[in-house]
Amino acid sequence: MIISRTFRQAAVRCISCITAGLIGYALLWSAVLRGTLMFAPYCFDEANTIYFVTQPFSRMLQFVMTGVEMPAYYVLLFGWIRVFAASPAATAVLSLILEVLAVILLYRLGRTLFSSRVARFGILLYLVSYSAIYSGTETRPYVLLLIATVSSLTALWHLLHGGPHGRWGWVEYLAASILGVYAHSAFLFLVYAQNVVVVWFIWRQRSALDFRRWIAAQLGMFVAVLPVLIPFALHTFERANQMAQTGMDAVAIPASGSYLERIVVGQFFGDTLTSNLQFGFSALLVMAIAGMLLRFRREPNGFGVSPRTPSPAESYLYILILIPFLTFLPGGFGIRHAMIILMPMFGMLLSAWFARWNPAWLGTFAASVFAAVVITFNGWYVFVIFPHEARFLWPNVAAYFARTGGIADSGPGLILLPDWDTERQFHSYYQGQLPVYRFFPTALQDPADPELSQIRNIRTPTVNAGNVGELSNIVSGYQTIWYVAGDTAYFYDPTEAMIGWMNQNCRFQGEAVFGSKTIRIRRYTACLPTVRR
């Protein structure tokens, strides 16, 4: 008996050492990956952001409010780059500073809803997840959005349960919610979910919240965000109308099972997990969800299963996750923005599941193994797959045009681009003498400010068979045309109408491909308004 007990104690100590090593390994690599991504070139979204904030302040606000963005992060970044610099590393430092605050607030949320142990697990899962690693250095507003989200959720929980410092709870909730709306439009759906939470808690008689004050707070928030809500609503409807004008039908989302799998698992891992591994990790997440909703117990003849009533904290997170998730789901792409702030909440639920394991060391060990596996795959993705993305290929494109052979002797030449995003990334590296023209249909242009017209159409299809004929006026007078299509061209020209027109009306000379056709340069000569074979 003494030997058996000694052996168990030694085994537990050994597992504790392994657990500490796995956690240290996960945290170390999470820091290494963030440090690596600090120096990654800007992606197309970041290139647009930098273009906005390098304009005069009033012009920057015009750009932001003309699209479907919110201004808080842009105003912060506008001041940051004037003190430091507009480089990937400099702007990544701002995101990392914001992430430190987000981690502190996320720990506070986990401790408030559950316990310090759950909060530590939640921080660990957040730090190793791919979406957090990526957004933690990205020159985009998502970390600021997460700060507002976590702060408002913590304050709301205190308000629902009559926590201490009630007056400051209202101040924190209002300030965080207003910041959230000004940070990103996805927060509007979280506000909707919060109202559902409030009604649910009051209906179940679990809340000390003064409902009249809640209504007053919602009205105050509405008034505070009116300056951004009105243009956001107008441009959203306008953008939807422009999409209809292109004749582009909504693309049906994939089968719901695989779609949900990619959306949820993709927050923890990069996009290149094999199907078997993705299925395995999906099965683990399903087991975790089942463990949250079901109670498994050992019986003399095997195991028994019975429904498990979620705790108030778990119900709180369930509703806050499901409402925006189901609201965004029909829109397909939009749910990815919501998942950036929903993923830490889902990670907190997973952490609560690990914390319920008995004995306690087993749950800690399982969480550390999960974190170590996640960071290993994300490290492989960052160092093996990530360098082949389009952002790393644009310097090669610029080098292609820097070569003298075949460029200088080709007569009057033009570089033709299909979209705004390609133009922003191309100009980041191209310093040559050839003129560059970005195609944009005249029917969508506002003569007073064509640039604002294009921003209003960012990430919407603009080219179709009805307007692609305008290319004849653009390419006339040039002997050689280089059509450069980047990784965002399919947003603007989903049917490749520009390539079709060029193939019919110009003589195709050849194609240079960068990456796995991530960027293509197609060379044409002798463009005519009639079909040429």
Task: Describe the fold and architecture.
The protein is an alpha/beta fold and 533 residues long. Helix content is 64%, strand content 8%. The chain has 22 helices and seven strands. The strands form two sheets. It has a five-stranded mixed sheet, with helices on both faces. A two-stranded antiparallel ribbon has the order 1-2. A hairpin with a 4-residue loop joins strand 6 (507-514) and strand 7. The chain is globular. The termini are far apart. 39% of the residues are buried. The model is unreliable at 243-255 (pLDDT under 50).
Task: Detail the topology: elements first, then pairings.
Elements: H1 2-37, H2 44-53, H3 57-66, H4 72-83, H5 88-113, H6 116-128, H7 130-135, H8 142-160, H9 166-183, H10 187-203, H11 211-245, H12 256-268, H13 275-293, E1 294-299, E2 302-307, H14 312-328, H15 334-355, H16 360-385, H17 394-402, E3 413-417, H18 420-427, E4 436-438, H19 450-456, H20 471-475, E5 480-485, H21 489-492, H22 497-505, E6 507-514, E7 519-525
Parallel strand pairs: 3-4, 3-5
Antiparallel strand pairs: 1-2, 5-7, 6-7
Helix pairs in contact: 1-16, 2-18, 5-6, 5-8, 6-15, 6-16, 8-9, 8-10, 9-11, 10-14, 12-13, 12-15, 13-15, 14-15, 15-16
